[in-house]
Design a protein that fits this description.
With about 60 residues, the chain is mainly alpha-helical. It folds into two domains: about 1-35, no CATH class; about 40-65. The protein has helices spanning about 20-35, 45-65.
């Protein structure tokens, strides 16, 4: 679930707006929970890693054939 659809029980505003301390704390907690190992990488870096992985896989398949 994304926090942009959650409504704060403290101030009745969307949590994504962070109007009160409770909203801001929950927004930060949800953002930390959704961080993954590749969340800090930009798309170009991810594409480059995928290309390297495919090339390595092709090399292994070629050597075993």
């Amino acid at each position: 679930m994304t926090y942009d659809r959650l409504v704060c029980a403290n101030c009745a505003a969307p949590v994504s707006q962070g109007r009160c301390p409770v909203c801001r704390a929950n927004r930060e907690r949800l953002q930390r929970e959704h961080e993954g190992p590749f969340s800090g990488l930009n798309p170009v870096t991810l594409i480059a890693l995928m290309v390297v992985l495919v090339a390595a896989l092709a090399l292994v398949v070629q050597q075993t054939a």
